[in-house]
Automatic annotation (TrEMBL):
Its EC number is 3.2.1.39. Residues 352-362 have a biased composition (Polar residues). It is found in: Secreted. Residues 376-461 form the X8 domain. It catalyses: Hydrolysis of (1->3)-beta-D-glucosidic linkages in (1->3)-beta-D-glucans. The lineage of its organism: Eukaryota, Viridiplantae, Streptophyta, Embryophyta, Tracheophyta. The keyword S-adenosyl-L-methionine does not apply. One of its GO terms (molecular function) is glucan endo-1,3-beta-D-glucosidase activity. This is glucan endo-1,3-beta-D-glucosidase. InterPro entries: GH (IPR017853), Glyco_hydro_17 (IPR000490), Glyco_hydro_17_plant (IPR044965), X8 (IPR012946). One of its GO terms (cellular component) is extracellular region. The keyword Cell membrane does not apply. Belongs to the glycosyl hydrolase 17 family. It comes from the Eukaryota.
C-alpha cells in the first residue's frame, strides 16, 4: 500500500488521466501535420493560409521548398515548419560546406525562432531516383546542412532528414517481415547511422490508396479506410492488423529493427486519399477520401499507436492542404486537397477547431441521412449476411474503449440472443463513439442511418443529434 501522502497525488493523476481521455482535444495535437505543395497557379496568399491553419488542429506544415513568404507568414503562430532542400540542391550542398552554410543562412536564420522551423528534409525519394551519383551525394549533403545548423547554434533544435518512398522496402507484407530492399541497404544504414547521431526521424510516404488500387476488393477498401473489417493476421508475429496504415508503418518499424535501428523514430511525411480520379482510378471519391482522412485523424487522436509502437501517435503529415492544379499525371494527382483556394473545405474531416465534421453529400451506405440535429442510430441493412454481421460484431467489441458488456449473458441487451440483435447494438455503439461520423455507419455497406430509435425494453441504444 502506498504511503498516505501519495494518495492525493495518485488521485490527482487519475483525474488528469480521465480528463485527457474524455477531452482529448484539450491536449496539443502536435502529431497532425499537413503538406503545403505549391505546384499551382491559384493558391491563396500565405497570410490567408496561415490564418486558415490557425483555425484547425494542424500543428505542423511541411513545405517542399523554403518559400520565404510562407515561412514568414507562419511566424508567431506556434505551427512547426518543415522546409526542404530539393534534389537539385544536393550536389552543391554535398560538395561545398559553404554552399550548405549559405543555404541555412538564407532559409533558416532570417526566420528562426519566430518561424518555428523544426526539420530540414534534404531531397525527396532520392534512393528511388536510380541516379547513383545523386544517391552517393545525399549523406554528405545532409551532413553539411547539419554542420551548418550546428555552426549557427541550432543543432538539436532544427533537425535534418530525407524523405523516402515506401518502395525502399523490399518486403512489407506481412509487417513483421518488413525489410529494406537489398539494393538500398548500404545507403540506408549510412543514412540511419547519421540520423541516430542527430536524433532525426526516418520520413516515409505510406499510401493505402495505392495498396487498394492494386487489390480493389471491398474487404481491402474497408481495411484501408479504417472501417470495420475482419482484420489481417500477420503470419510471422500473430498480430491482427485492423487497418493498412498501421500495417505499412509497422513494416517500416520491422525493417528498422531488423538492422539494429530500434531507436530511430518514424515520421509519416505524406499520406492521403484523392477525392477524384480518372475512370480507371478505382476508389478515388469524396466518400473514400473523407473516410480515410477522417478516420486516420481519429486514429491519431486516440493515441492507440500501432501494434509495434503502442501508446503514441506517429507524426503524420496529411497530403495535402490544397489541390495542385499544375501537377502532371492522372486526375488524382490534382485532387488531394483538403481545402479549396477560397479557403472552404473540400470535405470535412474534423480538423476545424469549431467543427465536429459535417454531413457528407451522401452516406457511403447509400441509406440517406436524417436532417442535421435529428437523433439517429446506425442499424444493419436488411439482407446483411451472418458472416458480415459477425465480422462487424467482432470488430466493434475488440476495439479499445468500446463496452460490449450489455451484450453478455445477464446484460440489458443480451436478449434476444441473436446475431442480428447483438450486431445492431454493436454497430450503433461504434457509430456513436466515433463522433457520429456518417462514414462509420458503413460496415462494408451493410449498415445505414435511421431516425427510428431501436431501443427496446431495458436495452437503450446510445443516440444523439449531429
Amino acid at each position: 500500500m502506498p504511503p498516505t501522502f501519495l494518495l492525493p497525488l495518485a488521485a490527482a493523476f487519475l483525474l488528469l488521466l480521465l480528463l485527457h481521455l474524455h477531452f482529448p482535444f484539450a491536449s496539443s495535437q502536435s502529431y497532425i501535420g499537413v503538406n503545403y505543395g505549391q505546384v499551382a497557379d491559384n493558391l491563396p496568399p500565405p497570410a490567408a493560409t496561415a490564418k486558415l491553419l490557425q483555425s484547425t488542429a494542424v500543428q505542423k506544415v511541411r513545405l517542399y521548398g523554403a518559400d520565404p513568404a510562407i515561412i514568414r507568414a507562419l511566424a508567431n503562430t506556434g505551427i512547426g515548419i518543415v522546409i526542404g532542400a530539393a534534389n537539385g540542391d544536393i550536389p552543391a550542398l554535398a560538395s561545398d560546406p559553404n554552399s550548405a552554410g549559405q543555404w541555412v543562412n538564407s532559409n533558416v536564420l532570417p526566420f528562426y525562432p519566430a518561424s518555428s522551423i523544426v526539420l530540414v528534409t534534404v531531397g525527396n525519394e532520392v534512393l528511388l531516383s536510380g541516379d547513383q551519383n545523386l544517391i552517393s551525394q545525399l549523406l554528405p549533403a545532409m551532413q553539411n546542412v547539419q554542420n551548418a545548423l550546428n555552426s549557427a547554434s541550432l543543432g538539436g533544435k532544427v533537425k535534418v532528414s530525407t524523405v523516402h518512398s515506401m518502395s525502399i522496402l523490399g518486403r512489407s507484407d506481412p509487417p513483421s517481415s518488413g525489410s529494406f530492399d537489398s539494393s538500398h541497404l548500404d545507403a540506408m544504414k549510412a543514412l540511419l547511422q547519421f540520423q541516430r547521431g542527430v536524433g532525426s526521424p526516418i520520413a516515409v510516404n505510406p499510401y493505402p490508396f495505392f495498396a487498394y488500387q492494386s487489390d480493389p476488393r471491398p474487404e481491402t477498401l474497408a481495411f484501408c479506410l479504417f472501417q470495420p473489417n475482419a482484420g489481417r493476421v500477420d503470419s510471422g508475429s500473430g498480430i491482427k492488423y485492423m487497418n493498412m496504415f498501421d500495417a505499412q508503418v509497422d513494416a517500416v518499424r520491422s525493417a528498422l529493427n531488423g538492422i539494429g535501428f530500434k531507436d530511430i523514430d518514424i515520421m509519416v511525411a505524406e499520406t492521403g486519399w484523392p477525392y477524384k480520379g480518372d475512370p480507371n482510378e478505382v476508389g478515388a471519391s469524396v466518400e473514400n477520401a473523407r473516410a480515410y482522412n477522417g478516420n486516420l485523424i481519429a486514429h491519431l487522436r486516440s493515441m492507440a499507436g500501432t501494434p509495434l509502437m503502442p501508446g503514441k501517435s506517429v507524426d503524420t503529415y496529411l497530403f495535402a492542404l490544397y489541390d495542385e492544379d499544375l501537377k502532371p499525371g492522372p486526375s488524382s494527382e490534382r485532387s488531394f486537397g483538403l481545402f479549396k483556394p477560397d479557403l472552404s473545405m473540400t470535405y470535412d474531416v474534423g480538423l476545424s477547431k469549431t467543427s465536429t465534421t459535417s454531413q457528407p453529400e451522401k452516406t457511403p451506405s447509400g441509406g440517406g441521412s436524417p436532417a442535421a440535429g435529428q437523433e439517429r442510430w446506425c442499424v444493419p441493412k436488411a439482407g446483411a449476411s451472418d458472416a458480415q454481421l459477425q465480422a462487424s460484431l467482432d470488430y466493434v467489441c475488440g476495439q479499445q474503449g468500446i463496452d460490449c458488456g450489455p451484450l453478455q449473458p445477464g446484460g440489458a441487451c443480451f436478449e434476444p440472443n441473436t446475431l442480428a440483435s447483438h450486431a445492431a447494438y454493436a454497430m450503433n455503439l461504434y457509430f456513436q463513439r466515433s463522433d457520429k461520423r456518417p462514414w462509420n455507419c458503413d460496415f462494408s455497406q451493410t449498415a445505414a442511418l435511421s431516425s427510428n430509435n431501436p431501443s427496446y425494453n431495458g436495452c437503450n441504444y446510445p443516440g444523439g443529434g449531429t
